[in-house]
Design the sequence.
């Protein structure tokens, strides 16, 4: 979720987060509550829609995500460092096919 929020600095509605992560709004609510309780995200009212909120990362949340993303990127580089260009292309094609199949099923 933090990755999705990081890519959308203006914020996302709960329904948008649910759609991006392919989970129910109920799954998102508890995570957003925890992120806001820890000062990593905040809820911002949407003008003209009293029921909707945008969820945004706070500066603290953005910094924590950046730290974790850097560690994750290093881990991925280490894991895939020995895979040649053809292997990466094959994995990418397989993931694209898997994503397409999943989207057709849902």
Sequence:
């Amino acid at each position: 979720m933090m990755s999705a929020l990081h890519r959308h600095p203006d914020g996302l509605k709960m329904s948008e987060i649910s759609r991006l992560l392919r989970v129910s709004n109920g799954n998102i609510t508890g995570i957003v509550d925890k992120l806001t309780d820890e000062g990593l995200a905040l809820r911002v009212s949407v003008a003209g829609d009293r029921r909707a909120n945008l969820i945004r990362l706070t500066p603290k949340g953005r910094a924590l995500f950046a730290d974790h993303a850097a560690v994750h990127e290093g881990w991925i580089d280490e894991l895939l460092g020995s895979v040649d260009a053809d292997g990466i292309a094959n994995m990418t094609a397989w993931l694209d096919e898997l994503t397409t199949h999943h989207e057709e099923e849902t």
